[in-house]
Amino acid sequence: MPAELSVNLNAIAMLRNRRDLPWPSVTGLGRIALAAGAHGLTVHPRPDQRHIRFSDLPDLRALLDDEFPDREFNIEGYPSEAFLRLVEEAEPEQVTLVPDDPSQATSDHGWRFEEHVHFLTAVVARLKRLGTRVSLFADPDADEAALAIAGDVGADRVELYTGPYGACHDDSEKAAKELEKLKKTAECAARLGLGVNAGHDLTVANLRAVAASIPALAEVSIGHALTADALEFGMAETVRRYLAALGRPA
User: Fold this and answer.
1) Which residues contact 206 (CB under 8 A, 6 or more apart)?
2) Is the whole-model pTM more than 0.85?
């Protein structure tokens, strides 16, 4: 089966937050994305709330529960105590844990699994008690030992960081090398029984190759490029374009 599409709403929230006004509506555009065929919605509630606000989470949970009960809520972030409490209140279908410093502009590296075994084991166990799927952010060239630790701490999936691949938008030779790293890491994760997600700087133009190279790909989470495209094509048509790139019917 082709990978599912989860629409990251952070860029929409950032645009809204420029003014003390309720538009663009994060929930409204999330509704359009889901109606157009997106499998889920992703948010990354950072401590300073510069993108998604904590108050958005109950509204998005209600949107999914009331109108799209077969879709998924994915909340990503660094597992601080405050973040974990937000997750416990929102009860998402998936939590994606990233090793971000609060000052980072965006996620830009995977976990150093061997350094955080005990920490991640405790956090993942706490999340699994909620019944949520847990995905851990991983470098595109994570080796078998690192991925084995991801499985050992209880993760269901890893999300491969595709930023280096996305950065090669003007260099096809370099992009091919980065894609090969992703392919090998995904194959290793699948052999170990881990599901494979991917995200960061994915576009309609570069997504087809990722989907073709990683048959085990379960889900992609896309926000920045998808939001930029939505300004040009509208949210519904943009979602359909990304679904087509994944090989999914709209």
Assistant:
1) 165, 166, 169, 175
2) yes
